[in-house]
Amino acid sequence: MLEELDTLKTIALTAVSAAADEPAVEAARVEFLGKKSALTGMGGRMREVPPDQKGAVGAKLNEVRTAITTAIDEKKAALLAARDAAAVAGIDLTLPGRPAWRGGLHPLTQLQDRAVKILRGMGFALATGPEVETEWHCFDALNTPADHPARNEQDTFYFPNGWLLRTHTSSVQIRTMETAVPPVRIIAPGSAFRRDEIDATHLSAFTQMEGLYIAENVSLADLKGTLEAFYRALLGPKTRLRFRPHFFPFTEPSYEVDVELHLAGQPARWVEIAGCGMVDPAVFEAVCQQRGDRVYDPERVTGFAFGMGLERLAMILFGLPDIRLLIENDARFLQQFA
Amino acid sequence: MLISLNWLSDHLNLNGLSVDDFSQRLTFAGVEVEGIEQKGVASDRVIIAQILEFSQHPDADKLSVCRVDGGPAGVCQIVCGAKNFKTGDKVPLALEGAVLPGNLTIRKGQLRGVESQGMMCSGKELGLGQDHEGLLILPADAPVGSPLGDYLGSDTLIEIEVTPNRPDLLSHFGLARELSALRGAAAGAAGEAGEALVLEPPHQVAVKRTDHLAGAPAVELPSEACPFYTARVIRGVKVGPSPAWLKTKLEAIGLRPINNVVDVTNYVLHDLGQPLHAFDLAHVRGGIVVRAAVEGENFEALDGKTYVLTPDDLVVADEAGALALAGVMGGAASGVTLTTTDVLLESAYFVPSGVRRTSRRLSLSSDSSYRFERGVDPLMVEAASARAVGLILELAGGVAEDVLVVAGQAPVLTGEVALSGDHVRRLLGSSISDDDISVILRRLGLGGPGPSSAGGAGVWQVPSYRQDLQRPVDLIEEIARVAGLDGIPSRTMAHFALPGADDASYDFALVLKTKLAALGFYEARTIKLVSTRQLDDGLGFDRRRSTPLALKNPLSEDHTHLRPSLVPGLLAVAAHNVRQGAAAVRFFEAGTVFAQSQNPKAGSTEAQALTVLLSGPHVPPSWLKKAPYASDLYDLRGVIESLLGRAEVRLKKIDHPLLVLAAEISIGGKVVGLGGQLRPARARELDAPDPLYVAEFNLGMLETLLGKDVRYAEIARFPSSTRDVAFEVARDFAHGQIEDFFAKQIKEPLLAGVVLFDVFTDDTGARLAADRKSLAYSLTYRDAGRTLEAKEVDAAHAGIIKALTTKLPLTVR
């Protein structure tokens, strides 16, 4: 039997080695290791083996079964490995990928959100107001006299019923104070409208961000600290600001804010970036009168307000030569910011 | 406004102040410097030199070596490339240290081994014109050794923008007064000595007063728009050209010299800020009356145009009619000309609002109206008149009558303001001392402080030219302006505000916008104004009930209405990008849409909309997919479903004038938007090569429906069973009917889900009649607490099919 087993082993190993695919290996397993295989049959013939040879034959049986099993496992593994290799052979990973559409937020939205996130981090909450406004909210309450040039039909869009398109987001200051009580700490991003011909630096409808903080003892020092912190967070920690005295009807003192702009290959220069000031007592008085109470009594509360044009900021930050790029919505422009 | 530094030096010693310092000082005084222009040669290191001799440079064919006489500067050796001169010519010589236009600083140096002690200049090199052909050859009488700037005249012009609250700065004297105050105040506050200032007070000539012109009735001031009027008669003047100094001054700031009398009035206006007007007395008949114009009164102004006036306008008139539009412009007939011998010089105070009204209504602005409408100094009225009379006598001769015709009196527009140091410190957040506050206010011309009132406030007297200073806060602004912000700390301690409803809406919109960006759409931001024609592109989902909002005074035909929908703007964006060759147009926009309010007293109804526009290949063409199919309605719907996430979206077919396939989009029975395919005729107008799909949502409604907190639903732990069924229906039968039936009619508790997995039609009629359609569904059954047995599932399934086949026109295939 020992010779028989050796012969069987040689035949089986040859057959396994010759198997070309997984079904052939499986067939070989059934043929050489299955219940009806010669090897299994020989196992059943052990009782015919003389007792002194049982040990040697038994060991041989095990050896042959193990050798065939191992050969089959190895063959299977080799075939699987070959199949896995074939599955990725011929793939050129330098070819372009299967494209999906790209999209993105408008650069002005991205910039506005950056600003909103910074100011929220500084404890401001959002506020809104209507874009179609009354003269009272847009001008009178903001201490702008009836014959002020801005109230001209040359400069402001009006409706037949006397309402107008707000010329600044400052009207949200009034809307907020009408309903909220101090302390008030809000920002209001939104549209403003001026009757300007559209050209490389002007839009008739543009985007502003208003800020307002009213509480007891708010001072110019708070305004200075807040705007410095904001612009440093937005433009970099080394950003320098300067406050130029200016005039707005609804703040006193009033300032225009410049930031120092460093562009590669150009000398540093100051660019105007915002207007701001301490809320004028006349604004508080107008609000008190409208509310019918004294919670905004200028003897009790003070506040600061600021406003910035987001298109202008975008032009500075992104190096845009023409403001109209922001309303043209050319996909080749938008994808640069995606 | 243009300011000449030469002119300013008449009032203020500018020595030691560079143009940059000057500009900086104005900037921080709140006066915007819009431009600086150098006229003539500013550097005194550029002198007049005479060429003594010259010879060929030993090592350079094109250069000459010249010896020139620089007067006090001595004889210099200069190497020169020009050829257009001869011995004895006088030329500009830039000595070492001269700074030429373009910031070129001249140094001594060697040119090809020969020393050159400066540079002889062309006109262009000095900024005196474009001639670059050779040296600027000066007239023979040019004084050798003198600075060229002195000989030719030089000036620096500064274009400034004065804020409307500071009319006192609209003159050279006013600006000098301000600069001297700032310089003094700054120096005083810092404890340093200020420089000597040449601040000549305006002439104050005492004359007798009368209330009428000789032989005429008293001057009448019936209108409150003119509280104070003066006139002075000068007889026997000789009208002619002004002298060079006056012409130069006026021309420097862009004014055209006319004649000596008119030039004097213009000079005094720009010098002292008080507008004056000179009438030819020969054209004044009878007495002067400053009155409201008569409705329809015609007035021919100096500009040659005839204006039709209303009673809102104020005129200076004689008994024959209007002589001048008060404070705005003189009349064509009564102006001073070369034949004038007797002059009536007017100096008055006109109330700002009246001048502003007339100037605006007639679109007629002048240097005079510009100042009156901002508010002139009432105390300057007489002083300016006296100054002008003096100059006219000096330049045009004649004799001034020794009486000043006066009507009314100078209004008192400024008064006392009480201010406490604590108030200043509280509003500025600084620790500025009471002494420093006093120094600043005094330098600005305020008198005081008077005796403290209760609360420690000192009382300050405001000068007549600072009508903007009425309240304590006005004075605090001045203190902050002069002291600057450097001394104020930067404070960042503050109350914080909690996010509210506006924050929630902002965040909700941003999440949807970000989702659409991830789904392959670019956000567009279009102008909120549209044309009348574009209104037809509107898709507001309540458009049937709303009226668009029209502007009263649109600027152009393109922007006549506020947008009722975002679709008009996005269609224009699509058309632009198609024209630019874009393969696909995939955009969205979020923003305000407007409609006329139902309430006639209210402004508008404003809502936030979110709109998606889609056209072109459904995936980008590539080597993997060379010709992808064009996006269709189901791509749009897929985008909507991805966008709205867990919400169950339903579309219901409607008719819409803009859409060929139109649907109301609803969530939970609430209509949240409209969408569909743009009518092909409209798409063709936009040159869109593929069908164009749009959907517009009401963001507010989406937020209400989707912005709520989610309640967890238990995840199934036991296996489910599925059963498939195909129904045969008429070709035009909608899947939505079956969907609705499942939603509303089927109450089977074991049914966990229904999915449409196949839609089949056969136009040939071979496998299914051509007018029929097969809809195949996969139904999932599940119980939360156990595994279902097959017969339970079969029974439930059979019940559902029976219900469907009984109630709907369909059969099981």
Describe this structure in words.
- The complex is a heterodimer of chains A (338) and B (813).
- Chain A is α+β, with helices and mostly antiparallel strands.
- Chain A is 43% helix and 19% strand.
- In chain A, the strands form two sheets. Chain A has a seven-stranded mixed sheet, with helices on both faces. A two-stranded antiparallel sheet of chain A has the order 2-3.
- In chain A, strand 6 and strand 7 form a beta hairpin.
- Chain A is rod-shaped and about 125 Å long.
- In chain B, a hairpin with a 5-residue loop joins strand 4 and strand 5 (75-80).
- The longest helix of chain B is centred in the first third of the chain and has 18 residues, at 172-189.
- Chain B has six domains: 2-40 and 157-189, Phenylalanyl-tRNA Synthetase, Chain B, domain 1 (2-Layer Sandwich), CATH 3.30.56; 46-153, Nucleic acid-binding proteins (OB fold (Dihydrolipoamide Acetyltransferase, E2P), Beta Barrel); 208-408, Phenylalanyl-tRNA Synthetase, Chain B, domain 3 (3-Layer(bba) Sandwich); 416-483, Phenylalanyl-tRNA Synthetase, Chain B, domain 1 (2-Layer Sandwich); 502-706, Bira Bifunctional Protein, Domain 2 (BirA Bifunctional Protein, domain 2); 721-812, 2-Layer Sandwich (Alpha-Beta Plaits), CATH 3.30.70.380.
- Residues 185-198 of chain B have low confidence and may be disordered.
- Chain B is an alpha+beta fold and 813 residues long.
- Chains A and B meet through helix 5, strand 1, strand 2, strand 4 and strand 5 of A and helix 7, helix 10, helix 12, helix 13 and strand 28 of B.
